[in-house]
Amino acid sequence: MPTFIRCLLLGATVVSLFFLPGCSRHENSERYILVTVNSKLPYWQTARAGLEKAAALYGVKSDVRGPDTYDPQAEVQEFRSAVALKPAGILVSVADAAQMKPAIDDAVSAGIPVITIDSDAPDSKRLYFIGTNNLQAGRIGGQHVVEKLHGKGNVVFYTMPQPNLEQRLKGYKDVFAENPGIKVVEEFNIKGDSGNAFDRTMHYLSDKSAPKIDAFICLEASSGKDVAEALKRQNATDRLVMAMDVDEATLDLIKNGTIDATIAQKPYTMAYYGLKSLDDLHHYAIDLKKDYSWDSFSPVPALVDTGVSLVDKVNVDVYLRARSEAQAK
C-alpha cells in the first residue's frame, strides 16, 4: 500500500477515535449548579437560560437551586445541599456574604471549585467573581439622575442589605456627594418583597406630611415595576423612576414613559461564562488550596466584568428586539 494512502487511513482512524463516545473530556454525569435567592425572578430565569445553553454545548448537566424568596439563610442551606451532591462546580450569587463565607470555604476545601456571580463574597475562598461592576452601575445611574433633575431634588432608594446592592448604592452616593442639591431622604429596605416598595411609594405620594420625592431609585430588579404602578395610580407623572435590569415588563414601561431608565446587566452571560469557567477548572485542575489573590502569575482572574449600560427611550427598542430574538431561538 502506498505511503500516502496509509497516512490518510491513519489520520481518518485518529479523527474517528476522537469523536467516539467517551473520548470527549466531558462526561454525562458532570453537573454544574447555580445557587441564588429569589430564584423565580425573570432575572434568574435569564441566567438559567445562559447556564442551560452552556451545559447543552458541553453535554453536561446543570441545575438552579435556591429559595423563591429573599432568604439568605435558606440560600446557605441550598448551597450546602448542592455541595453534598459533589458537583463539578458551583456558581453562587451571594445574598449575605458573612453567612455564605463558611459554606463556600468548606466547598473549596472539599475540592469543589466555586465562582461567585452577580453578588460577591470577596473574603471567602471563592476563586473569582463574574458579574457587573456594581460601583460603576451606581455611578452611571447617579449621573443620569443628576442630569434629569438638573442637580436638585429629593431621592429615595429601594434596596436590600446585599453586597452588590451596597456597591450600587455607594456608586450613586459618590455622584450625589459632588452634587449637594440632591438629597437622599431614605434608603428603604424592601426585604426581598417588591410590594414593600409599592407601599412605601404610595406613602410618599399620598401622605401630605411626607416630603416630595423627585426620584425613586430601585437598586434591584423587582421593585421598579411596583413603583411605576404606584405612580400610575396616583397620576404622579412628574416623578423620576430609575429601575434595575431589563426584564420585558421594565422595558415596556420605559417605552411608554412610566419608567425613565434602567441599568442593564448580563445575567445570561454571567451564568453562561460561569459554567464554561467552572468546566475549565474541573478538567484542568488547579490547586484550590492556594490563595491566588496576590499571585502575579495566577491561572485565574480576580474578576470578570460582564458589562453594564443605561437603557432609556433612546435605545430601549434595541433591548426589546434582542429579547424577542433570544426568545425566538
**CATH topology annotation of the largest domain:** Rossmann fold
Distance between the termini: 50 Å
Which CATH C-level class of the largest domain is it?
Alpha Beta
The main pleated sheet reads as: 6 strands, parallel
Mind telling me which CATH architecture of the largest domain this is? 3-Layer(aba) Sandwich
Model regions low in confidence, pLDDT < 50 over at least 5 residues: 3-23
Number of domain modules = 2
Mean pLDDT: 91
Structural class: alpha/beta
Helical percent range?
40-55%
Number of helices: 11
Strand residue percentage: 15-25%
Order of helices and strands: HEHEHEHEEHEHEHEHEHEHEEH
Indicate the topology.
Blueprint (H helix, E strand, L loop, with lengths): L2 H16 L12 E5 L6 H17 L2 E5 L6 H13 L4 E4 L4 H13 L4 E4 L11 E3 L2 H15 L4 E7 L3 H15 L4 E8 L4 H13 L8 E4 L4 H11 L6 E5 L3 H8 L5 E4 L2 H17 L19 E3 L3 E3 L4 H13 L1
Parallel strand pairs: 1-2, 1-3, 3-4, 4-5, 5-11, 6-7, 6-8, 8-9, 9-10
Antiparallel strand pairs: 10-12
Please name the defining characteristics of this protein.
329 residues, Rossmann fold, six-stranded parallel β-sheet, disordered N terminus
Structure description:
- This protein is an alpha/beta fold and 329 residues long.
- It folds into two domains: 26-132 and 267-289, Rossmann fold; 134-264, Rossmann fold (3-Layer(aba) Sandwich), CATH 3.40.50.
- Helix content is 46%, strand content 17%.
- It has eleven helices and twelve strands.
- The protein has helices at 3-18, 42-58, 72-84, 97-109, 134-148, 163-177, 194-206, 223-233, 248-255, 267-283, 316-328, and strands spanning 31-35, 61-65, 89-92, 114-117, 129-131, 153-159, 182-189, 215-218, 240-244, 261-264, 303-305, 309-311.
- The strands form two sheets. Strands 2-1-3-4-5-11 form a six-stranded parallel β-sheet, sandwiched between helices.
- Helix 8 links the parallel strand 8 (215-218) and strand 9 (240-244).
- Helix 2 (42-58) packs parallel to helix 10 (267-283), helix 3 (72-84) runs parallel beside helix 4 and helix 5 (134-148) packs across helix 6.
- The chain is elongated and about 60 Å long.
- The termini are far apart.
